[in-house]
Amino acid sequence: MEVDNENQALWEQFYMYSNTLNETLRQRTPPTSLQCNIGFNYIYHPFEYAGEIYGNFLKKYLDGPKKILFVGMNPSRFGSLQTGIPFGDIATVRDRMKLQGAIRNAPNLHSNITIKGLQSWAEEEPSSQRFWDLIKTIFNDEEDFLDRFFENCFVHNFCPLVFIDNNGYNVSFADVAERVPDMEKACLDILQQQVELLQPKIIVPIGWYVFETLLELDYYKQGKCVVERIRHPSPNCYAQENDWIDESRRKLLNNRTFSYYVYS
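^ that's the sequence the OP posted. Answer follows.
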């Protein structure tokens, strides 16, 4: 994909790459028979119906290259499904980031999932809340921790889609990618272009799947960054929030390069 580097801001270029990925994944969506075989029945595209919120997020926080990039796997069925923002639980996006944006042409797929964007009172996503609680502790619980985080850091999802089964639960993109490698390749190809835009010195994959996949990035193979994995904050992995926060904070701050960039 060609992006107009001269006439577009960095956040607009990043947005266009995200749009291209969303369109490519639509084309590579597996047939219904394979979807059921993998275990999911519905696919949500937050970029399409929550694109205004996502665009406002990029415009506010992606004001230039970033030294550190956190990468999650794909959106959850609660906050990020509603907001389109990585680890975007509604309270953080609406009340802390102060973002706004309308939901347009929201799909009505699963009967237990209603998309209302920032007006939603759906159950919050604990993984998202834990992620931002970690960031807050890294900046010593200061009130402006979000602004300080986004000075040198950014957060992104490897895949922008939400996969839902008949019961209304998430299906991991790792399970999907194993059976539909073309979707994984599309995500990797676009991420390569997005990291070339951001020029991070450190990439922090969140969870094993993202870690193993990002090692295939040419950007990493060319020695342009280091990769520092942290575990996924899901309650399925850590019953106690503080256990994950303490482990992740310690691991990140023990990396001197991370500490230098995050506090510079």
